[in-house]
Amino acid sequence: MTYVLHFTNGNIKREGRGLSFFYFAPNSSIAAIPMGSNDLPFIFNESTNDYQTINIQGQISYKISNPKTLADVLDFTVNDNGQYKKNDIEKLNQRIINEAQTATSSFIHEIKLKDAIRSAKSIEERILEGLKSSQAIAMLGIDILGANILGIQATPEMSRALETETREKLQQEADQAIYERRNFAVEQERKIKETELNTEIAVEEKQKQIAEKKMESEIQKSDNDRKLREMKLAADIAVENQRKLLIEQKTANDKKEAETQGYVIETTMKPYKDIEWKTLTALNNNPDPKFNISLAFRELAENAGKIGNLNISPELLDTLLNDKRENKK
Protein backbone atom coordinates (compact mmCIF):
# COMPACT_ATOMS: atom_id res chain seq x y z
CA MET A 1 0.00 0.00 0.00
CA THR A 2 3.07 2.27 -0.27
CA TYR A 3 4.34 3.90 -3.45
CA VAL A 4 8.19 4.18 -3.36
CA LEU A 5 10.32 6.66 -5.26
CA HIS A 6 14.09 5.92 -5.33
CA PHE A 7 16.12 9.00 -6.16
CA THR A 8 19.87 8.77 -6.95
CA ASN A 9 21.79 12.00 -7.36
CA GLY A 10 18.47 13.81 -7.81
CA ASN A 11 17.13 11.50 -10.50
CA ILE A 12 14.49 8.79 -10.12
CA LYS A 13 16.21 5.43 -10.42
CA ARG A 14 13.18 3.31 -9.69
CA GLU A 15 9.57 3.79 -8.60
CA GLY A 16 6.55 1.65 -7.98
CA ARG A 17 4.13 0.27 -5.50
CA GLY A 18 5.27 -2.21 -2.91
CA LEU A 19 8.90 -2.34 -4.19
CA SER A 20 11.66 -4.15 -2.33
CA PHE A 21 15.32 -3.37 -3.24
CA PHE A 22 18.78 -2.53 -2.01
CA TYR A 23 20.17 0.95 -2.40
CA PHE A 24 23.36 2.85 -1.58
CA ALA A 25 22.39 5.23 1.21
CA PRO A 26 25.01 7.99 0.76
CA ASN A 27 23.80 9.00 -2.69
CA SER A 28 20.16 7.79 -2.47
CA SER A 29 16.94 9.32 -1.30
CA ILE A 30 13.71 7.34 -0.70
CA ALA A 31 10.21 8.84 -0.76
CA ALA A 32 7.41 6.61 0.58
CA ILE A 33 3.86 7.70 -0.17
CA PRO A 34 0.91 5.78 1.44
CA MET A 35 -1.65 4.71 -1.20
CA GLY A 36 -4.47 3.53 1.02
CA SER A 37 -7.55 5.58 1.81
CA ASN A 38 -7.38 7.85 4.81
CA ASP A 39 -10.08 9.17 7.14
CA LEU A 40 -9.27 12.72 8.15
CA PRO A 41 -11.17 13.98 11.18
CA PHE A 42 -11.67 17.73 11.41
CA ILE A 43 -13.20 20.33 13.68
CA PHE A 44 -13.44 24.04 13.08
CA ASN A 45 -15.50 27.04 14.13
CA GLU A 46 -17.65 29.30 11.96
CA SER A 47 -19.87 32.32 12.54
CA THR A 48 -23.52 32.33 11.41
CA ASN A 49 -25.57 35.15 9.95
CA ASP A 50 -26.81 36.15 13.41
CA TYR A 51 -23.22 36.36 14.75
CA GLN A 52 -23.27 33.11 16.65
CA THR A 53 -20.33 30.73 16.74
CA ILE A 54 -20.87 27.09 15.88
CA ASN A 55 -18.51 24.14 16.10
CA ILE A 56 -18.51 21.81 13.05
CA GLN A 57 -17.09 18.34 13.54
CA GLY A 58 -16.75 15.74 10.81
CA GLN A 59 -14.56 13.45 8.74
CA ILE A 60 -13.18 13.50 5.19
CA SER A 61 -12.19 10.33 3.38
CA TYR A 62 -9.53 10.56 0.66
CA LYS A 63 -6.83 8.59 -1.07
CA ILE A 64 -3.62 9.54 -2.92
CA SER A 65 -4.18 8.86 -6.62
CA ASN A 66 -1.05 10.48 -8.05
CA PRO A 67 1.88 9.91 -5.67
CA LYS A 68 4.48 11.53 -7.97
CA THR A 69 2.45 14.77 -8.06
CA LEU A 70 2.13 14.72 -4.27
CA ALA A 71 5.88 13.97 -3.93
CA ASP A 72 6.61 17.08 -6.02
CA VAL A 73 4.58 19.25 -3.65
CA LEU A 74 5.29 17.72 -0.24
CA ASP A 75 8.26 15.94 1.26
CA PHE A 76 7.62 12.24 2.02
CA THR A 77 11.31 11.32 2.33
CA VAL A 78 12.11 8.60 4.85
CA ASN A 79 15.38 7.88 6.68
CA ASP A 80 17.23 4.60 6.90
CA ASN A 81 14.75 3.39 9.51
CA GLY A 82 11.73 4.13 7.29
CA GLN A 83 10.59 7.14 9.31
CA TYR A 84 9.55 10.37 7.64
CA LYS A 85 12.11 13.09 7.93
CA LYS A 86 9.37 15.71 7.87
CA ASN A 87 5.74 15.49 8.97
CA ASP A 88 4.29 16.74 5.66
CA ILE A 89 1.35 14.36 6.01
CA GLU A 90 0.05 16.83 8.58
CA LYS A 91 0.43 19.60 6.02
CA LEU A 92 -1.62 17.56 3.57
CA ASN A 93 -4.37 17.02 6.15
CA GLN A 94 -4.40 20.67 7.12
CA ARG A 95 -4.67 21.80 3.50
CA ILE A 96 -7.63 19.49 3.01
CA ILE A 97 -9.27 20.81 6.20
CA ASN A 98 -8.64 24.41 5.10
CA GLU A 99 -10.27 23.78 1.74
CA ALA A 100 -13.22 22.13 3.48
CA GLN A 101 -13.63 25.09 5.84
CA THR A 102 -13.38 27.51 2.91
CA ALA A 103 -16.11 25.63 1.05
CA THR A 104 -18.30 25.72 4.16
CA SER A 105 -17.79 29.24 5.52
CA SER A 106 -19.67 31.11 2.77
CA PHE A 107 -22.69 28.90 3.30
CA ILE A 108 -22.62 29.18 7.11
CA HIS A 109 -22.30 32.96 6.96
CA GLU A 110 -25.60 33.18 5.07
CA ILE A 111 -27.78 31.21 7.49
CA LYS A 112 -28.85 31.66 11.09
CA LEU A 113 -27.83 29.59 14.07
CA LYS A 114 -30.91 27.37 14.21
CA ASP A 115 -30.72 26.68 10.48
CA ALA A 116 -27.00 25.95 10.69
CA ILE A 117 -27.51 23.39 13.45
CA ARG A 118 -30.00 21.56 11.23
CA SER A 119 -27.90 21.83 8.01
CA ALA A 120 -25.52 18.86 8.39
CA LYS A 121 -26.51 17.34 5.05
CA SER A 122 -26.13 20.65 3.20
CA ILE A 123 -22.72 21.22 4.79
CA GLU A 124 -21.59 17.75 3.73
CA GLU A 125 -22.60 18.50 0.15
CA ARG A 126 -20.83 21.87 0.21
CA ILE A 127 -17.59 20.33 1.56
CA LEU A 128 -17.62 17.50 -0.93
CA GLU A 129 -18.38 19.80 -3.84
CA GLY A 130 -15.77 22.34 -2.73
CA LEU A 131 -13.01 19.77 -2.34
CA LYS A 132 -13.67 18.08 -5.67
CA SER A 133 -13.70 21.38 -7.53
CA SER A 134 -10.69 22.85 -5.69
CA GLN A 135 -7.56 23.45 -7.80
CA ALA A 136 -5.37 23.17 -4.71
CA ILE A 137 -6.68 19.69 -3.97
CA ALA A 138 -6.20 18.69 -7.63
CA MET A 139 -2.55 19.85 -7.47
CA LEU A 140 -1.97 17.53 -4.53
CA GLY A 141 -2.85 14.46 -6.61
CA ILE A 142 -5.52 13.11 -4.24
CA ASP A 143 -9.13 11.96 -4.74
CA ILE A 144 -11.87 12.90 -2.26
CA LEU A 145 -13.97 9.84 -1.43
CA GLY A 146 -16.53 11.44 0.84
CA ALA A 147 -17.34 13.85 3.63
CA ASN A 148 -19.42 13.29 6.78
CA ILE A 149 -20.63 15.81 9.37
CA LEU A 150 -20.68 14.18 12.76
CA GLY A 151 -21.93 17.13 14.75
CA ILE A 152 -22.80 20.84 14.70
CA GLN A 153 -22.85 22.51 18.09
CA ALA A 154 -23.32 26.02 19.36
CA THR A 155 -21.44 27.47 22.31
CA PRO A 156 -22.39 26.06 25.72
CA GLU A 157 -24.20 29.28 26.68
CA MET A 158 -26.15 29.35 23.43
CA SER A 159 -26.83 25.63 23.66
CA ARG A 160 -28.37 26.15 27.09
CA ALA A 161 -30.36 29.09 25.71
CA LEU A 162 -31.59 26.99 22.81
CA GLU A 163 -32.37 24.16 25.16
CA THR A 164 -34.31 26.56 27.35
CA GLU A 165 -36.09 28.00 24.36
CA THR A 166 -36.84 24.54 23.03
CA ARG A 167 -37.92 23.40 26.47
CA GLU A 168 -40.22 26.40 26.79
CA LYS A 169 -41.55 25.81 23.30
CA LEU A 170 -42.14 22.15 24.05
CA GLN A 171 -43.84 23.16 27.29
CA GLN A 172 -45.98 25.63 25.37
CA GLU A 173 -46.80 22.92 22.86
CA ALA A 174 -47.67 20.59 25.72
CA ASP A 175 -49.83 23.30 27.29
CA GLN A 176 -51.38 23.96 23.90
CA ALA A 177 -52.03 20.25 23.49
CA ILE A 178 -53.66 20.14 26.95
CA TYR A 179 -55.68 23.24 26.08
CA GLU A 180 -56.73 21.78 22.76
CA ARG A 181 -57.62 18.48 24.43
CA ARG A 182 -59.69 20.27 27.07
CA ASN A 183 -61.17 22.54 24.44
CA PHE A 184 -61.99 19.48 22.37
CA ALA A 185 -63.63 17.88 25.39
CA VAL A 186 -65.60 21.07 26.07
CA GLU A 187 -66.54 21.25 22.39
CA GLN A 188 -67.66 17.64 22.44
CA GLU A 189 -69.67 18.29 25.61
CA ARG A 190 -71.22 21.33 23.95
CA LYS A 191 -72.09 19.28 20.88
CA ILE A 192 -73.61 16.59 23.09
CA LYS A 193 -75.68 19.20 24.94
CA GLU A 194 -76.68 20.79 21.65
CA THR A 195 -77.69 17.37 20.38
CA GLU A 196 -79.72 16.75 23.54
CA LEU A 197 -81.34 20.18 23.25
CA ASN A 198 -82.04 19.61 19.57
CA THR A 199 -83.56 16.25 20.47
CA GLU A 200 -85.72 17.87 23.15
CA ILE A 201 -86.71 20.61 20.72
CA ALA A 202 -87.56 17.98 18.10
CA VAL A 203 -89.60 16.04 20.69
CA GLU A 204 -91.38 19.24 21.76
CA GLU A 205 -92.01 20.09 18.13
CA LYS A 206 -93.44 16.62 17.54
CA GLN A 207 -95.60 16.92 20.64
CA LYS A 208 -96.73 20.34 19.45
CA GLN A 209 -97.58 18.88 16.06
CA ILE A 210 -99.43 16.01 17.75
CA ALA A 211 -101.34 18.50 19.94
CA GLU A 212 -102.14 20.62 16.89
CA LYS A 213 -103.28 17.52 15.02
CA LYS A 214 -105.45 16.51 17.99
CA MET A 215 -106.84 20.06 18.16
CA GLU A 216 -107.49 20.03 14.42
CA SER A 217 -109.17 16.64 14.78
CA GLU A 218 -111.29 17.91 17.69
CA ILE A 219 -112.15 21.05 15.75
CA GLN A 220 -113.02 18.94 12.72
CA LYS A 221 -115.05 16.62 14.91
CA SER A 222 -116.81 19.58 16.57
CA ASP A 223 -117.48 21.07 13.15
CA ASN A 224 -118.81 17.73 11.93
CA ASP A 225 -120.94 17.41 15.09
CA ARG A 226 -122.22 20.96 14.56
CA LYS A 227 -123.00 20.20 10.96
CA LEU A 228 -124.77 16.99 12.03
CA ARG A 229 -126.76 18.93 14.65
CA GLU A 230 -127.55 21.59 12.10
CA MET A 231 -128.59 18.94 9.62
CA LYS A 232 -130.67 17.19 12.29
CA LEU A 233 -132.17 20.51 13.39
CA ALA A 234 -132.84 21.43 9.80
CA ALA A 235 -134.46 18.04 9.36
CA ASP A 236 -136.50 18.53 12.55
CA ILE A 237 -137.46 22.02 11.38
CA ALA A 238 -138.43 20.63 8.02
CA VAL A 239 -140.45 17.88 9.74
CA GLU A 240 -142.06 20.44 12.06
CA ASN A 241 -142.78 22.68 9.11
CA GLN A 242 -144.33 19.75 7.33
CA ARG A 243 -146.21 18.88 10.51
CA LYS A 244 -147.29 22.50 10.85
CA LEU A 245 -148.45 22.53 7.29
CA LEU A 246 -150.20 19.21 7.94
CA ILE A 247 -151.85 20.56 11.10
CA GLU A 248 -152.79 23.76 9.36
CA GLN A 249 -154.12 21.77 6.46
CA LYS A 250 -155.91 19.39 8.84
CA THR A 251 -157.27 22.34 10.85
CA ALA A 252 -158.40 23.97 7.68
CA ASN A 253 -159.97 20.72 6.58
CA ASP A 254 -161.61 20.20 10.01
CA LYS A 255 -162.78 23.78 9.99
CA LYS A 256 -164.10 23.40 6.54
CA GLU A 257 -165.75 20.12 7.51
CA ALA A 258 -167.19 21.69 10.68
CA GLU A 259 -168.42 24.61 8.68
CA THR A 260 -169.89 22.18 6.23
CA GLN A 261 -171.50 20.16 9.02
CA GLY A 262 -172.73 23.37 10.70
CA TYR A 263 -174.12 24.50 7.42
CA VAL A 264 -175.79 21.14 6.98
CA ILE A 265 -177.16 21.20 10.54
CA GLU A 266 -178.20 24.81 10.19
CA THR A 267 -179.85 24.05 6.90
CA THR A 268 -181.45 20.94 8.40
CA MET A 269 -182.64 22.71 11.54
CA LYS A 270 -183.74 25.84 9.79
CA PRO A 271 -187.25 24.47 9.06
CA TYR A 272 -187.60 23.55 12.75
CA LYS A 273 -186.39 26.91 14.03
CA ASP A 274 -189.81 28.52 14.22
CA ILE A 275 -191.71 25.39 15.27
CA GLU A 276 -192.74 25.10 18.95
CA TRP A 277 -191.10 22.41 20.91
CA LYS A 278 -194.27 20.76 21.76
CA THR A 279 -194.96 20.36 18.12
CA LEU A 280 -191.50 18.93 17.63
CA THR A 281 -192.07 16.58 20.55
CA ALA A 282 -195.29 15.44 19.06
CA LEU A 283 -193.61 14.97 15.71
CA ASN A 284 -191.04 12.83 17.40
CA ASN A 285 -193.80 10.37 18.16
CA ASN A 286 -192.00 8.78 21.11
CA PRO A 287 -194.06 5.78 22.36
CA ASP A 288 -192.30 5.62 25.73
CA PRO A 289 -194.82 6.42 28.48
CA LYS A 290 -192.10 7.71 30.74
CA PHE A 291 -191.25 10.32 28.13
CA ASN A 292 -194.80 11.39 28.14
CA ILE A 293 -194.86 11.53 31.95
CA SER A 294 -191.74 13.76 31.84
CA LEU A 295 -193.51 16.08 29.42
CA ALA A 296 -196.44 16.18 31.81
CA PHE A 297 -194.17 17.16 34.65
CA ARG A 298 -192.71 19.93 32.51
CA GLU A 299 -196.17 21.20 31.77
CA LEU A 300 -196.89 21.20 35.43
CA ALA A 301 -193.75 23.12 36.15
CA GLU A 302 -194.52 25.73 33.56
CA ASN A 303 -198.06 26.19 34.97
CA ALA A 304 -197.05 25.95 38.62
CA GLY A 305 -198.48 29.34 39.31
CA LYS A 306 -201.87 28.19 38.20
CA ILE A 307 -201.89 25.05 40.31
CA GLY A 308 -203.04 25.21 43.87
CA ASN A 309 -202.13 21.77 45.20
CA LEU A 310 -200.41 18.83 43.47
CA ASN A 311 -200.06 15.42 45.05
CA ILE A 312 -197.77 12.82 43.52
CA SER A 313 -197.88 9.44 45.14
CA PRO A 314 -194.65 7.85 46.32
CA GLU A 315 -195.47 4.72 44.44
CA LEU A 316 -195.41 6.61 41.14
CA LEU A 317 -191.96 8.13 41.90
CA ASP A 318 -190.66 4.84 43.13
CA THR A 319 -191.84 3.16 39.98
CA LEU A 320 -190.10 5.78 37.84
CA LEU A 321 -186.91 5.60 39.86
CA ASN A 322 -186.89 1.83 39.86
CA ASP A 323 -187.27 1.84 36.13
CA LYS A 324 -184.23 4.20 35.80
CA ARG A 325 -182.16 1.99 38.14
CA GLU A 326 -183.08 -1.06 36.11
CA ASN A 327 -182.16 0.76 32.90
CA LYS A 328 -178.74 1.70 34.37
CA LYS A 329 -178.15 -1.87 35.41
UniProtKB/TrEMBL annotation:
Write out the entry's keywords from A to Z.
Coiled coil
Q: Which domain of life is it from?
A: Bacteria
Q: Which residues form a coiled coil?
A: 194-221
Tell me which positions the record assigns to the signal sequence.
Answer: none
**What is its membrane topology?**
Single-pass membrane protein
Asked whether the UniProt record includes Secreted among its keywords, one would answer no
Domain (Band) spans 7-182
Location in the cell reads:
Membrane
Is Transcription regulation found in the keyword set?
no
* Name of the protein in question: SPFH domain-containing protein
Q: Which organism is it from?
A: Mariniflexile jejuense
Name the lineage: Bacteria, Pseudomonadati, Bacteroidota, Flavobacteriia, Flavobacteriales
